[in-house]
Amino acid sequence: MQNRVFVINRQGEPLMPCKQQKCRKLLQSGKAKVIKKEPFTIQLLFGSTGYKQLVSIGVDSGQHHIGLAVTSQDKVLFQGEVSLRQDVKKLLDTRRIYRRGRRNRNTRYRPPRFLNRAKPAGWLPPSVVSKVQHNINWIRRLRAVLPKAELHIEVGKFDMAKMKQPDITALGYQQGDLYGYETAKQYVLDRDNYTCQICHGKTKDPKLKIHHIIYRSTGGTNQVSNLLTVCATCHTQANHQPGGKLYALQAKKFQSHRSLKGATFMNILRRRLFTAFPEAKFQYGAQTTLDRAKLDLPKAHYNDAVTISGIQKIAQQPTAIVMFHQFRKKKRSLHEATARKGRKTPNRASKRNAKNTKAINGFHLNDYVQLPNGRRGSISGFSGQYKCYVKAGNHYLTINPKYKQVNLCKLKVIRHQNNWNVLEINTSDYMMA
Fold first, then answer.
1. 336 — pLDDT class (breaks 50, 70, 90)
2. 6-20, 156-170, 200-214, 243-257: range with lowest mean pLDDT
3. How sure is the predictor about 330, in pLDDT bands with cuts at 50, 70 and 90?
4. Could you tell me if 314 and 409 lie in one domain?
5. Residue 323 CA: distances (Å) to CA of 128, 397, 404
6. How many other C-beta atoms are found inside a 10 Å radius of the C-beta of residue 186?
7. Greater confidence, 205 or 126?
8. Half-sphere exposure of 51 (CA within 13 A, CB side)
9. 312 pLDDT higher than 70
10. Is CB count within 10 Å lower at the N or C end of the chain?
11. Quick one: 140 and 43 in the same domain?
12. Residue 14 covered by a domain
């Protein structure tokens, strides 16, 4: 069984999803047209009210992946998975570094603005906003193309204080790590008994310092669990390098480090989903695990979504999953180290760089193409006027092993894609990945 295709009538009202064979016949006969690709939706060009029945949408919300499923009675009509971008923070950090560099080079091209630092109520970091909004937008996308849709969403609720200290009591929630101390430095020194944790006081150096175990530049925080007391003798540049004592301590901390970023995000997402969809039915992961075991489904995001939809028995389920992966299409010069004004040849016409080329000779950035050897991938960039780079995941696809570039005349376009890579794979391939 294949995933169904979403259908709306001539007036824009959603109808029941149809089979892919029927969709092809409607498109070939000119009775329908494609209006949306994420998810794939057609619109009928003739009058039709259509028979509508109750359908359920199951959503496995998350930070990295979103599981989606549409069920009706004992049939799974659609199942898919969305992979969200995880590079937003890194790109913003890069942009900030370049911006500060331009200011220090005395190449300011506009008056300084220092009164735009106030954060409105409910402000969230851009990387968190991106993921939260995509969870909300994908739910709205499905509801817009389905009639009488009943919404079921799985959310997460985490007690982070208990995750850090399992035996915490009611009074402990009011008294944090720094209770009774004026500063974090005072707490760390007292916790470590004013002793270097590397040499344990063998050097007898009276000057003690506070050291970040995982550096902030590599994702560390200022929390006291990431701070350590070291003496000036041990806190050297050599010990920070690979092979040094502090570097080895960092590697050990990385292995045992339990980040709370995921739990924090799920708590934020839960509240935002409550506000955006007050009519939805919400449940938690513990219930999903029990229900999935009753349906005898393996652990996967799309299977979780099928379970969350409330289906009691599965008579038909697609043998494929539709995978959506967000693609960063624009590479603006805002992220470049050399500003346009500082180049040898001024870019007065705002001409795009070669890496920003959107299309050449009928081929577009991110098009899903096939090579002569049968391998398939997406165009990740162009080189000159006749060549491009083709990627499948993080790997380059080539014809000649000596060159990454592939000649455009040897490629066959399978599907034009915009900001989302859409791929339908078999469930067996998904489990092996």
1. low
2. 243-257
3. low
4. no
5. 22, 20, 26
6. 12
7. 126
8. 1
9. yes
10. C
11. yes
12. yes
Tell me the C-alpha to C-alpha distance, in Å, between residue 257 and each of 41, 210, 216, 370.
44, 19, 14, 43
Mean pLDDT of the chain: 86
Examine the pLDDT at 257 and tell me if it is beyond 80. no
Flag whether 106 is in a domain.
no
The confidence score (pLDDT) of residue 432 equals: 64
The pLDDT of residue 335: 45
Q: What is the mean pLDDT of residues 210-225?
A: 79
Q: Are residues 297 and 390 in the same domain?
A: no
- Looking at the predicted structure, is the pLDDT value of residue 197 above 80? yes
pLDDT of residue 69: 97
Structural domain for 308, as ranges: 5-86+125-159+262-326
Hey, which residues does 60 pair with through a beta bridge?
Answer: 67, 154
Whether 99 maps to a domain, the answer reads no
